[in-house]
Structures are given as C-alpha cells and as structure tokens.
Amino acid sequence: MTAVTHLLTDGDPGPGDPAALRLQVMGAVRVWRGDTELDAGPRQQRCLLALLLAHGGRPIAMTHLIDLIWGPGAPPSAVNVIHKYVGALRRLLEPGLRARAAGSYLVRQGNGYRFMAGPQTLDLFAFRQHVTAGRASAAEGDAKQALDRYVEALQLCHGHAGEGLSDSAAAMATFSAIDGEFYEAATAAAEIATRARRPSRVLAPLRLATKMGPLNEPVHASLMTALATAGHQAEALAVYRTIRDRLADDLGIDPGHDLQEAHRRVLDQTVTPAGEKPAEARPAAPFPLVRPAQLPPDLSVFVGREAELDVLRGLVAGMRDERRSGPLVVAMDGMGGVGKSTLATRLAHQVAATFADGQLYLDLQGDQAQEASLTVRDALPSLLYALGVSPSEIPDACDARIGTYRSLTAGRRFLILLDNARDSEQVRPLLPNSAGSLVLITSRRPLTALAAFDGAHLVRIDLPDMSSARALLTLRLAGLPNGAESADPEIVDEIIELCGRLPLALAVVAARLIARPRLSPATVLADLRDGARRLDASPGVADPRTTFSWS
Q1: Which residues 6+ apart lie within 8 Å of 499 measured at CB?
Q2: Mean pLDDT in residue range 462-478
Q3: Is the pTM of this model over 0.85?
Q4: DNA-binding region at which residues (predicted)?
Q5: Does domain 306-460 have CATH number 3.40.50.300?
Q6: Fewest CB within 10 A of the end CB: N or C in the chain?
Q7: C-beta neighbour count of 11 within 10 angstroms
C-alpha cells in the first residue's frame, strides 16, 4: 500500500467546520463544502479532479495527465484544456481565490500538478491513515483497536474509485490500484474480526468488496469465513457457488486454494460460529500449499534464437557448481520489441522443471515513464502473496518486506522472471536469498551495476538475422492464401527491412494480414513505404515502423 507522505493537517478544516471542504474519490467523485454538495463540473473536469485525488499528493506530469485522460487519442488542445479545468477546479475548491492564483489545493509542480490536503479533506488520505493505524495496532496485539481503525477505513469506500471516469487504460489502472487497497484492507479486517469473534462488523464492507471485485478470490474467501463465523453457513456456501460458477463461465478456471480451503472449512464446520467455543487452532503452514506457477504462456509461434538459447541454457547448466553461493542472475537487454520477454519466457518454460519450489513472475513496468514503473515497495507484495503471505501480514516498511522475502526464499529453488526492469536498483532487492534459484531479467538497458556488484550475467539480445525474420513472418502467416511463402521473396524481404527486422513490428504486420485475408503483402509493402516517409504522422500499431522508431 502506498505510504501517505503529504498529510497536511495544518489548515485542514475539521469535520465540524461549516465551511469545511470534503472530497470523495473512493466511489463516485463528489465534493462538499460543509453539508452542501458542489457540482464538480463536466465529465472531463471531474476526471481530471479524480486523477489528481487518486495520486494521493504525488505530482503528475502534464504528459502523464494527458495520457491518463485521453490515452493515445489526445487532441492538440489537451494542454490548454487541462489548464482551463485546473482554473475552474481552483475556483470551485476556493471560491474567494483571485484570478490566476494557485490556491492551497491544486499546486503547480514542474510542468504538472499535485493535490495537497489532509485526511479531514480527502477520503483516500483518511482511509490510508486509518489502515496504517490498524496495522500498527494489530502488530502490537491490540485486536480491538486494530478492528476499530480498519472498520473506520472501510466505511469510507462507496464503490469503484473514480466510478465511471476511466476513459483510458492508464486511468483504469490508477483507479484499480485504489480498489486493490480497499480489497487488501477488507481481507485484513476480516481476519482480525474472525479471530476476535466479531464478524458482523466487516460483513457490509466485504459484501461491497465482492460486488466491486466479482472475480476477487481472497475477498470472497474472507466473506465466506466471516459469514460462517457469524452463523450464516448457508449464505457462505451460496457465495462459494456464485464465484465458482463465475470463474468457470468467465475465465474457464476452477476456484483457487484460498476459496477451496474456505469452502472446505465451512463444509467441515471448522469455522466456529461466534458465541460457540472455538476449536483449537492449527498452526499455519510456513509456505503455501499450492506451488506458484506464474510464468506467462509460452509463444506457440516462436522461431529462431537458437544461439541465444544455447548460451542461456549453458548458464543454467552451470548452476550445478556446488561452489555457488548466490542465485544465478541473467539480465537480457535490447531495444523495445526485439523479443527479450518472449525469449526469457521460452527459456523459463524449458528449464522450469528444475526449480522444485515454483516460478514467480513480475512485470516491473520499467519500459514506462519512471513514475509509472513499479517501486521496490510496490513490487514486493505481489511476490510475498505468491509465497503464501496474506495481505494483512505483509509488513508496511520496505526494509521489512525485503527481509521477509529473503527469509521465504532462503535455501529454496525458485525460477523468478522479472520483466521490463528499469535499472539495477529496481531489481537488486528482489534477488532471492538462495544459491539454487535462477533470476531472469529483461531490460532495455544493460544492467551493468548488477553485473559489477551482484555477479549478473549480461546477455545482449540483438535483432534477428534475415533468415530468422523471414521464418517468423512465414510461420505467422502459414495457411493464408496470400501468406509469405506464396509472396514474391523480394516483397517479403523489403517488408522485413522496413520493419527493421523487429519481431514486434513483424508480428503487427502479420496480424494485419491475418485480420484482412484479402490484403496482399504487396499492398502492405506500399503502405510501409509511405509510412517510412512519415513515421510521426500516425503513431500506433497501424505503422509497425513506429515501434522501431520508439526504440
């Protein structure tokens, strides 16, 4: 959970102040002054406000704001529109503000903006403050105080963050992260309430959480346990049947371990209703009963890269050296779209059986803007959860999270794939404390510091040669009446060269031909020739050379 570093309590009006300003982002975006609700303006203006609130006091650069609001289809006037909305929001939040004054809430920083307030003003700040206090009380063994603070936090959520304002994938991810904080707090509160025999206090927020996250298994498992503890076994079983059917219909999968275990305990009546004498608690297993297997699917149309795979397999074979005292770290670097992640996934699947304790995967998003890439603090909960640590038991301090991760990986054999690393500092704390583990890392830059100080092997992934690129395009178009094998070889070769032999660009071209079977390679070539003279005219997958130009 993101720490709140900008809780400005000075000058933050209390709830009893008739002029107090209050804002809500954990649900539909709403603004009140005292008891009067204010009109937050047109939809796009409300979206801007929601995004500034959702970033919890952190600045948002103008380019990132534009991407959040419009995505790739931003109008040329986007900057002016944002400036106009900021001015309108400043006047809304501070009616007496003179023209062009910055005010106290929407503060300019660099070429972007940040929202400044305290927990009395913004529900997200108050939520995080209560959750932090609840965790501290739980760590001290004060279950009553912990539950009180968690319940205060959960009562602040009224639905999906920024409800109805996710117009881009980036905005959706921003608001979903806040929903995720609510889910984690709800499951942590449920665990405390169940142990304290006070399940009724968390039933309402848990029901809201299951409604918001209809496929969230930990939340449903927590609701089932709380219902059974409250004596509502029939409703608990109905919750299980509902999500079991939903998982089967929507995803084609069976319930995971948490749900199955909660279902078993309800059926066996090992969840004792409140008011009855609880059965003697069994010690918790130190590691998960389900072996993590998080690798992405292998690509069925993979071709070439035999030389690189031979080198990588040779490094893995060298792990048999008993003198090794640390994990084998292999960092693959190369331009975007060259196929680093695909190659790493292929190797991981080939050697996965060697690592008895399972495989972990994490996309560090280092290929995005720096503020969008995962911090070490935010990356560790995903790994800890896969290793069997419940959300409520994940330490708040980053150093404590690193220590827990190293303790859980010590002496075990894991394969860990860290995709899209930004730099060495981002991955160093994620290295396991085990000589029997393999860490595969992909990055656009050589991680030289990781090689210098952590013994990582650096492997450069270059563009495929012409024969491999031709084989890739031919395989992807196999079976089409106008596929690459039936096209003029000179046309195919020129398409490959105009795509810079970049595997991602070739995959985009192939997808276009598959989607339009009547389109000929000659027509695609003509489009590419035209696009080569105007790379910046229309960025997107329609012009695969754009991917090459970005790299």
Answers
A1: 505, 506, 509, 528, 544, 545, 548
A2: 78
A3: no
A4: 5-117
A5: yes
A6: C
A7: 9
